Amino acid sequence: MKYLKFQFGIMPIKKEKTNSKKWKKNREYYKIFSIFLLFASLLFLVLSSLFSIVKAQDSVEVYIIEAYIAPENEDTLKLFFYTSEEASSRLEIDGKYKSVISDTLTETHSALVNLSGYNFADSVIRCRIFVKSSAGAESRSDVFEVKLPYEPKIEGGSSYFLSCLTGGLIFLTPSVGAAFNDNEAKLSFTKDFPLIAYYLGGYNFPAGYFSLEYTHTPEYFPKNLLRTGYKHIFEVPVLSYLSPGVNYTTDFLGLNGVSPELNIGLFSVSNTFTLNLKTRYNWFPSASARNYGEVYIGLQSFFFTYEL
């Protein structure tokens, strides 16, 4: 037994082979990719902003002359407005009821909008006019309010409350995806809250918005990140939109970085939520070993966003 102990004592210890070279090589690839994605996103944002400014100069102005509901005819909205150039127009009420005002090009727009069959939850309805010029430039008015000459009766109050509750839950539901680095993927959750948005034309989405986003990855470091950033939106055929963006990212524990991203709006649900695919890379200059990528899918909404 002593001989065996002696033999084991002098046996050389085999060191495990590490993948340090491969890991360092992957880190370099991630670093190059993150820098490229960052500058590409910044360039895209600058070009898109210039494009938006030019587009804003071509927008059609809307001048509302009158919009009211007479007490003697409470099911009819009387609307009259001018546009700065010839355009077709339509009206949207409470974000869900739509009526064509003029399907031909004109500078003078008027209509008697039939409200029968519409269910309103408030004594004040919120309206917005959308116009399209002969050149295809799309613009929209500010939201304006019209008071109903009666107090609306909410039929099926419990179902209305359930609808609001369901909408709120969907709005708060996080996107689900994966965080990956060095050929390893971990389950991750993120929720993007659009805070302030502005419109330069287009019917369905803002031109851009500022957001606050929280990300939680249970089995990864950093586990919790808070981001604030800007995203620009391009409405495109087939898809709902393409939206590049860039974020400042921090864990409030000394880890800070930049996160360029690309959002793809796949399709809209009930004209309120959009199924959104997000891809992003997180670059931490002071801790490059923590750089990692993300992919998420979830629902995006601007229902509770403040509009400039």
Which helices and strands occur, and which strands form pairs?
Blueprint: H1 2-10, H2 20-57, E1 62-68, E2 76-93, E3 97-114, E4 124-133, E5 138-140, E6 144-147, H3 157-172, E7 175-181, E8 184-198, E9 208-216, E10 224-232, E11 241-250, E12 256-269, E13 273-282, E14 292-300, E15 306-307
Parallel strand pairs: 8-15
Antiparallel strand pairs: 1-2, 2-3, 2-4, 4-5, 4-6, 7-8, 7-14, 8-9, 9-10, 10-11, 11-12, 12-13, 13-14
Throw out a few tags for this protein:
six-stranded antiparallel beta sheet, 308 residues, disordered N terminus, alpha+beta, 20% helix, single chain, Immunoglobulin-like
Describe the structure.
There is one protein chain. With 308 residues, the chain is α+β, with helices and mostly antiparallel strands. The chain folds into two domains: 26-52 and 174-307, Beta Barrel (Porin); 62-156, Immunoglobulins (Immunoglobulin-like), CATH 2.60.40.10. 20% of the residues lie in helices and 47% in strands. It has three helices and 15 strands. It has helices at 2-10, 20-57, 157-172; strands at residues 62-68, 76-93, 97-114, 124-133, 138-140, 144-147, 175-181, 184-198, 208-216, 224-232, 241-250, 256-269, 273-282, 292-300, 306-307. Strands 7-8-9-10-11-12-13-14 form an eight-stranded antiparallel barrel. Strands 1, 2, 3, 4, 5 and 6 form a six-stranded antiparallel sheet that branches. A hairpin with a 3-residue loop joins β2 and β3 (97-114). The N and C termini lie far apart (85 Å). The model is unreliable at 1-18 (pLDDT under 50).
